[in-house]
Specification:
single chain; mainly alpha
C-alpha cells in the first residue's frame, strides 16, 4: 500500500521503494516487521521532506545571488555612465571657454 501511495511516482519509483523495503525487512525478525515498515515509511517521508527543504533553500539562495549580481551590474553601469557624462562635460566645457 505504501508503494502505491508514492506521490508522482511511476512504476520504477515504486519498484525501487519496494526493493529498499525488502532489504530492510530481510534484516528484521517476523514480529518486528510491522514496526520496521512503519519506521521505514516515516524515515522515507522525512528524507523526502528534507530534500524538498534543501531544494527550496537552494532555489532561494540562487535567486538572492542572481539579484546581487544584477544589482552589482546595474551599479557598475550607473557609475560608468556618470563618469562618462562627467568626462564629456569636462571636455566640452574646455572647448566653450577657450575662444
Amino acid at each position: 500500500m505504501s508503494a502505491a501511495n508514492i506521490q508522482g511516482g511511476d512504476v520504477n519509483v515504486q519498484v525501487s521503494f519496494l526493493q529498499e523495503m525488502k532489504k530492510v525487512l530481510a534484516d528484521l525478525q517476523p514480529q518486528d516487521r510491522l514496526d520496521g515498515v512503519e519506521a521505514f515509511v516515516r524515515l522515507r517521508q522525512k528524507n523526502k521532506q528534507e530534500a524538498a527543504a534543501k531544494k527550496l533553500v537552494a532555489g532561494t539562495e540562487l535567486l538572492v545571488s542572481g539579484g546581487v549580481v544584477w544589482s552589482l551590474a546595474t551599479l557598475i553601469t550607473l557609475v560608468s555612465m556618470v563618469l562618462a557624462l562627467l568626462a564629456i562635460e569636462r571636455n566640452t566645457r574646455g572647448r566653450q571657454e577657450s575662444p
